[in-house]
Structure formats: structure tokens, C-alpha cells
Specification:
The chain is built from one helix and eleven strands. By secondary structure, the protein is mostly beta strands. It has one domain (about 40-179): Sandwich (Immunoglobulin-like). The strands form three sheets. Strands 2-3-10-6-7 form a five-stranded antiparallel β-sheet, with no helix packed on it. Strands 1-4-9 form a three-stranded antiparallel β-sheet, with no helix packed on it. It starts with a helix and ends with a strand.
């Protein structure tokens, strides 16, 4: 009888050990997080130095500088500068590459437009052979090739009447739009 009592007590102790931890354990909860995203197509424009032109400061970005330095109608010109002259003006130009890439788009090509940041009543500005002003955007190309360095030379035509030491400065704002 004593053995039976010990076995019963032992079984009760084991049962309590099994049952008690299940009541004393940490409480849990579950949940579900739904994640959504909508992919939009996009384009990116950067300026790259062209081997035939003046090296751009900030090449590989969308905010570069083309610094012609000192220019004149006659005499030596800096590396990468092409100069032409008429009877009353001279033009300095440099190759400048525009590289437009696309993502998540079926667009075959892009339209590139340019516009001067400020009016210039004295000098004539061109991008890729197209005159640009501050009045409105000018179309440089309607069929730009993606992911390629497309050379659109920048040119400034300066009158012979411009005073020595005159600083010429402006910005050209480019816009690439997927077709």
C-alpha cells in the first residue's frame, strides 16, 4: 500500500510538472502584414565629359559645369574648344554628352529640350545646333537614344563689340521626357 501511495504521489507530481508550465508560459499573438508597392517608370539624366570637349566639372551628375575659361576671337583656344569667326562675331563650342537612362519603361526613346536659365540679349546660345533662349524650351532631339553618351555641343556666339573682361555666365536647363 505504501508503494502504491508513493507511485500515486509521483504520478501527481509529474502531472503537475507537465501542466504547470503550460499555464505559466508566455502568451502569444499572431498577425499578418500585407505589403504593396506600385512601380512607376522613371528616367535619369546626367552630363558626361566628351573626349573631344572641355572636361566638365561634376561629370556623371545632373548638375555639371562647362567652363570655357578665357575666350577670344583670335589667338590660341583651350583644349576641347572649337572656335569659328565671322566679320562681327565669334563662336566657341565644346562637345558635351547627355546620357539618359530609363527604368521600368517601354519607351523606345526620349525627347530632350533645353532652355536658358536667364535671358541673354547679347550672346546667342546653342545646344546641339539648336538655338536656346530663356523664353521657351527648345527641342534638341525628339528621338534620343537611352543609355548612351549623346553629344550635344554647347556653343556661345559672342559679338566683337563685347568689352574685354566681360564674364559670360548662364545656366542651361535640360528636360528629358520619355516618348
Amino acid at each position: 500500500m505504501e508503494t502504491m501511495r508513493k507511485i500515486t504521489l509521483l504520478m501527481m507530481a509529474v502531472a503537475l510538472m507537465v501542466v504547470v508550465p503550460s499555464f505559466a508560459g508566455a502568451q502569444t499573438a499572431t498577425g499578418t502584414l500585407t505589403v504593396t508597392a506600385t512601380v512607376n517608370s522613371s528616367v535619369k539624366l546626367v552630363f558626361n565629359s566628351d573626349a573631344a570637349g572641355v572636361a566638365l566639372t561634376g561629370s556623371g551628375t545632373n548638375a555639371a559645369t562647362l567652363a570655357f575659361g578665357n575666350v577670344s576671337a583670335f589667338g590660341a583656344v583651350g583644349a576641347g574648344i572649337i572656335r569659328t569667326a565671322t566679320a562681327t562675331t565669334f563662336t566657341v563650342s565644346s562637345a558635351a554628352d547627355v546620357n539618359v537612362t530609363k527604368a521600368n519603361s517601354v519607351s523606345a526613346n526620349y525627347t530632350l529640350k533645353a532652355q536658358l536659365g536667364a535671358a541673354d540679349a547679347v550672346n546667342t546660345w546653342q545646344v546641339g545646333g539648336t538655338t536656346v533662349t530663356s523664353a521657351a524650351q527648345a527641342t534638341i532631339t525628339a528621338t534620343g537614344a537611352y543609355a548612351a553618351n549623346n553629344n550635344f555641343p554647347v556653343a556661345i556666339t559672342i559679338p566683337f563689340t563685347t568689352a574685354n573682361g566681360t564674364v559670360i555666365s548662364n545656366t542651361i536647363n535640360y528636360t528629358a521626357t520619355a516618348n
